[in-house]
Design brief:
72% helix
């Protein structure tokens, strides 16, 4: 799941670099319809992975107890 999130994030960054090279409407459209959704799915997958790993808990402490 983390690898898929990294891959989607890299796809979004590659499209963003394409925008820096070719600044026209076509690359902006590609980023709007491919890059931003890829980045959103990447962040969602990463948060889901961290949630399943137990990173988000409601004990009030910043880390789970180690005892």
């Amino acid at each position: 799941m983390t690898r898929a999130a990294c891959l989607l994030g890299l796809i979004a960054l590659a499209i963003l670099m394409l925008i820096e090279v070719r600044l026209d409407g076509a690359t902006a459209t590609i980023f709007s319809f491919v890059g931003i959704p890829a980045l959103a799915v990447a962040v969602g997958l990463y948060l889901l992975h961290r949630w399943r790993a137990g990173a988000f808990h409601f004990t009030g402490a910043s880390r789970p107890p180690t005892s």
